[in-house]
Sequence to fold (528 residues):
Amino acid sequence: MNRREFAKLLGLSATALSGIPLGVTRAVGQTKGGTLNTIIQPEPPILVTALNQQQPTLTLGGKIYESLLRYGSDLKPLPGLAESWSVSPDGLVYTFKLFPGITFHDGKPLTSEDVVFSVTKVLVETHARARGTFLRIDKAEAPDPLTVVFTLKAPFAPFLNSFDCTTAPIVPKHIYDGTDFRKNPANAQAIGSGPFKLKEWVKGSHVHLVKHEGYYRKGEPHLDEIIYRVIPDGASRAVALEQGKVQLTQWTDVELFDVARLSKLPNVEMTTKGYEFFAPHFWLEFNLRVKPMDDKRFRQAVMFAVDRKALLQRVFFNLGKVATGPVSSKTRFYEKDVKQYDYSLDKAKALLDEMGLKPGADGKRVSIKFLVPPYGEIWQRSAEYFKQSLGRVGIDLQLENLDLAGWAERTSNWNYEMTCNLLYQFGDPALGVSRSYITANIRKGILFSNIAGYSNPEVDRLFEEAAVATSDAKRQELYTAVQKIVIEEVPIAWMVEQDFPNFIDKRLKNVITTGIGVHETFGAVTLG
Fold:
């Protein structure tokens, strides 16, 4: 009996015992109401997106928290909490007008004061990516309950692209003001203003969201509830989709080796759309504070030692393309004319020999502890592939598995040697790329910042000048220059520009409507 057959035999007993029925609860032909059953994998450590930016938190938290704007698949801004906005001719003053009648889940009104507080107090402290953007604000004002005015210290080209629900979630000032944000008891309730609110979280089983009756968008949400089920086993997740027990999967809910088979199911459609804003970049992460990772020759050797084309084919099943540097080819300001790291064991060995890392009698030059992120089988397979690849040149990886919270704590506090990671680009290098390389973003305890500890004053200067330049031609010139430097120094070993499959029950409508896909609010989703 194979693993999939065994999972079917079990009948998903773990989730069936949760006390909430699996499957669709709705009348035939109904498009209002109903229950969406989906998956959250792995289980998030917290639901407050201002405090944690790991993918499961953002996927689920996007239904609970909103921001001022949304973004289409073309990455152009759309109304979110703000129904309109304007920018001054000098590019310094941004004025947002909020929709009237917005309320938090506790019934209190959401006003411009909550926006100013979230952006200038909470996010600059707790959100690695948002911090770099919002520290550029010189003055934040709330002249009336529905108007927010941000005045920047200098022009910042992508400022208007900084207000999606994953970057700038708005939290209630009346709950968080004057408190330790990370230890606030209200974090357990996850009080936002989105179309769905938290009813129940049974750890290890499910997260149950129900509609926010006071939601400001007329007629939304259409669904009565969303149940995110925790199903750790990949085969069981596939069975849940096959049997219609869940109507939606996202990210790595479906293991990539199962994508081709499940794409043939008659009741679902598969799409890789909805990740345009993120343009996920998968890489090997070094701790540059630890020898021999502090030597660029070692990092270059790693790039030469990994056959990235084979990695894409054998581990990612061709869902993506080989990455060539820090900027994704799917986003603006990508530069293709850069140093290439072709697969060459001889070049890798020559660099390691030059460093004095000679192989011992057992063929090993150095042993390095490698933390395996607990995001699913694809991550374990990747880690094993890296261990095998680097072992060919004498680099011995010792794999260590942790839960999600443990991996996040270890890496963010620099208590690691090597790991792998997946970061988003957010449509502009100033938003999603520079944070991993600029010296100012070396912040212990903050995940998805410059945890590698890379520092180069010229790189800092180029990223900053590119961020404030108003001409796209000038920005391209600066980003081209910084890419060439960073690719030479390899502070991070870029592997794959990854694509992800969404499997959507054909009865579901309006699931992928923007550039952030399944991270959206789902207020417009219907179940027919």
